[in-house]
Design goal:
- It is a single chain.
- The protein has 16 helices and six strands.
- Helix 7 links the parallel strand 3 and strand 4.
Length: 421
Amino acid sequence: MKIWDKGFDNAPQVDAFTVGKDRELDLLLAPYDIEGTLAHITMLKEVGLLPADDFAQLLPALEALHREALEGKFVITGEDVHSEVEARLGPLGKKVHTGRSRNDQVALDIKLFTRARLRTTLEKVSQLFELLLTRADELKDVLMPGYTHLQVAMPSSFGLWLSAYAEALCDDVVFLKAAYEVNDRNPLGSAAGYGSSAPLDRRRTTDLLGFGSLAVNSIYAQMGRGRCERQVAFAYACLAETLGKLATDCCLFTSQNFGFVKLPDAYTTGSSIMPQKKNPDVFELVRAHCNRLQGVPNDIRLVTGNLPSGYARDMQVLKEVYLPLFDELDSCLDMLLFALPGMEVNRSLMDNPLYQQAFCVEEVNRLVQEGVPFRDAYREVGKAVAEGTFHYEGELHHTHVGSINNLCLDEIRARFEACFS
């Protein structure tokens, strides 16, 4: 029986279409739906809307369902997770919905789910940051060519390259933390978007569920759906952009034409026709997933962008767009955490005459420090390059903040740690 049953049956086609993928996707939300119900009945008991004897029976039943959900044994046979939980509680299940709507239930479930997944992602980002900074320190003296326009430009180093992505994660964490704060507001008790005449204590459920604050206005608690998901998705899109760019660099640098880095054979895949191939599929797939994830905020906007205030069933489609993004991005983080430690670098890369021209600016700056005007030095070095006589064997003197010889890794680390203070 549907929890909104009014004594008539829907056409099967309507049931199938309106349920959509809820049964499948609601399994992700099941532990959080039960946590929300536990907080809700605690509050109902305290305000006198649920007898203490009923609460005493509901509490262990819900705790058992919660364990079942955490263990992956929870099954949805009814319309959705909300109806399943009520049905599994037996006759007393009819009392747990007082003062709620499925609208604030699903909004709550998604916020609790998002909060947990953001914490997981932030932990993985911290691990990746530490890995990048550690490897940057290990490889700070190993030179590589830097490129502009995909042309050899100036000397770089593996330490400079890797710590650039570590610093990029500092910015990504700022967006992830902001997304966490926007999400960390309790919508429970807003019901269908207009509150309830039941004497609910919304601040109590906020405390019980560990939210940082309350979504105060009942209409905005519902209006925030789609908006909150989009802001979280935007933060993930920013992180995906960083990971995708790193993956693209790795794809280029593992090719024979570059030969900057090498993956262990076990980390590569082969070809069905070319026996020599050792393909960096892991990085290509990270790039593809991250490119796709950058479109999720727009997908959400296209679902919700023209909706009026108040709930509309369009919101259901958000689950299909939004819930999978967490596993998709976390799997990319996991793969980078797996692949990057085993990546070997070419330590004699700059011995290749192909990269001699990367030192042109070094020679220009040497002449300038001897008193030659910059434009004259520029023309002199350019003439040597054109005549094929340019050669540089001097030392590098990049001492300013954030350069090859002064990576300032401690400053980057301090900036990252400050994001969590």
